[in-house]
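Blackboard transcription, Thursday session:
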Amino acid sequence: DAKTTQPPSMDCAEGRAANLPCNHSTISGNEYVYWYRQIHSQGPQYIIHGLKNNETNEMASLIITEDRKSSTLILPHATLRDTAVYYCIVRVAVGTGGFKTIFGAGTRLFVKA
Amino acid sequence: NAGVTQTPKFQVLKTGQSMTLQCAQDMNHNSMYWYRQDPGMGLRLIYYSASEGTTDKGEVPNGYNVSRLNKREFSLRLESAAPSQTSVYFCASSERAGANTGELFFGEGSRLTVL
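(Written on the board underneath:)
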């Protein structure tokens, strides 16, 4: 019951910006959008998250549309080491007062020299 | 700075055997999770514990049991292993059960093969 949809794969030239889209049309008003990536078979790594404002950190920028139904993760200068699977996630509130994080299939980003 | 520690890292079982995967976090996190990842697939949530004393089923709980032993430890048990449970298992934790506190910290994974 992933609440997001992403393209299965994308290519990007080294040194260029990588723009990874995500649709989350059923997102609720208080749900945040999270992005993770997974390199090879390592555990996923947190990248960034946001609610409605654009966010930036040392790794990436997150652009969320005004209606919050989609977002874009931007890696400003992609390197070969950014080749990974990128997951866009909306956490699901559960009755015990917590949240569960459901991963979809993600986007496999290939950065090419 | 251990973070999330999983044991064992590798395990080979025969069909019908049982085993327990151990997970411990040293970040004083409230919530803990178990995921499995099959080759070429995304992660699927098996069980989670939103806080100490609670556990709930995720997407694929059949064939598994969990125990939140204390705030630090969350174990996953396979009572009668099947080849379909061959997978990489990841444990994760997060700070508080809130909308803005969902950053998950993952362990390195436990690679399980069931023959």
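Lecturer's comment: The mean pLDDT of chain B is 91.
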